[in-house]
Each structure stands twice: as C-alpha cells, then as structure tokens.
Design goal:
This protein is mainly alpha-helical and 95 residues long. It contains 6 helices and no strands.
C-alpha cells in the first residue's frame, strides 16, 4: 500500500515537472532568446571588479538602535504569558 502511494506520488510529481508555463515563457523577449550564453569566468575575476562595501556611521547607529529594540522585545516575549495568579487558578482547576 505504501509503495503504491509512493509510486503514484512520484509519478504525479514527475508529470507536474513536465508542465509548460506559457505565462512565464511570454515574458522572455525574442532578443533575450537569441542572445548567446554568458561566458563562465572564475569567481576571483568577478570579486576583483567589486569594490569593498562601505557602511556609514549613521547606518551603524540606526542598526544598533534597531538591534537594541529587537533585544528588548525578545526579552518581553521570553516572559510568562500567564501571570502567577492565573497560573494558580489553572492549577486548582486541574487538580
């Protein structure tokens, strides 16, 4: 039974993979279809063309403020959702 289900599931997935998506194919222009494949180059060559990222000081300050807010929010979420009086009431109801 399990093998039959697995086989049917695999065949369904295989058939779905063969589907054509006309809505996506229509978005590619004829010029893009006729374009040659790009040359494959080593990643070192690409990395050499990229300048080092620069973070400005105001960005660091804003990031630090955001991180502090997120930490404070996480600390609030770590606390108990139910206050002690409610916990006692629930325990009495269970016992």
């Amino acid at each position: 039974m399990h093998r039959r289900f697995a086989l049917v599931l695999a065949m369904t997935a295989a058939l779905a993979g063969c589907a054509r998506f006309p809505a996506l194919e229509a978005t590619v222009s004829d010029e893009a279809r006729a374009a040659p494949y790009p040359d494959l180059v080593p990643v070192e060559q690409i990395s050499a063309q990229v300048s080092a990222p620069r973070v400005q000081e105001p960005g660091n300050r804003a990031l630090a403020v955001r991180a502090a807010r997120l930490r404070a929010r996480a600390a609030q979420l770590r606390g108990s959702v139910i206050d002690p009086a409610e916990q006692d009431r629930l325990r009495r109801g269970v016992e």
